[in-house]
Design a protein that fits this description.
The chain is an alpha+beta fold. The protein has a domain at 3-71 and 111-140: Archaeosine Trna-guanine Transglycosylase, Chain: A, domain 4 (Roll). It has 4 helices and 8 strands; from the N terminus they run αβαββββααβββ. The strands form 2 sheets. It has a 5-stranded mixed beta sheet. Strands 2-6-5 form a 3-stranded antiparallel beta sheet. Strand 3 (52-57) and strand 4 form a beta hairpin. The longest helix has 9 residues, at 3-11. It is globular and about 45 Å long. The two termini are 15 Å apart.
Length: 143
């Protein structure tokens, strides 16, 4: 199976040359797909220019279930980040601050258009050596 063709078929959009495979817990994935969660929080920022995130849903699902586009990332001290993003965070305050404990900077990818696939995919389905990332990893798309 070809990852680019699958994403293009679902999104009806061009696939950038670099995409991010991002691991997200199932409870948060569902909130993304139902538009309750508008920000994906990370301790590290991706490299500049990454706009497309392929969602790998962690255990017990362990599958690629969709994708989302993000045109911006908000980077600031976690207290300021919470104040800015709390209403659409999809996470409670205690869990947020436990996640960012000891960090001077937190990052919030602003979730734009998102797509839940009608069929879920194992990483092995794409036969390109994808592995479940701890947080995120890059996929270089060959044309």
């Amino acid at each position: 199976m070809n990852l680019v063709e699958m994403i293009r078929d679902v999104t009806k959009m061009d696939v950038p040359s670099v995409v991010c495979l991002i691991s997200i817990h199932p409870e948060f994935v569902e909130k993304i797909y139902n538009s309750e969660k508008k920000f994906e929080f990370r301790k590290q920022k991706t490299r500049d220019g990454v706009r497309l995130f392929v969602v790998y849903e962690t255990a017990p699902v362990k599958m690629i279930t969709g994708c989302f586009y993000s045109d911006s990332c908000i980077s600031m001290h976690p207290e300021m980040l919470w104040n800015k993003c709390a209403d659409c965070s999809g996470i409670d305050e205690d869990r947020f601050f436990k996640y960012f404990y000891g960090k001077e900077i937190g990052h919030a990818f602003v979730i734009g258009r998102h797509f839940k696939f009608s069929k879920y995919y194992c990483l092995d389905d794409f036969q390109c050596g994808l592995r479940a990332p701890q947080s995120f990893s890059y996929i270089n798309i060959s044309r």
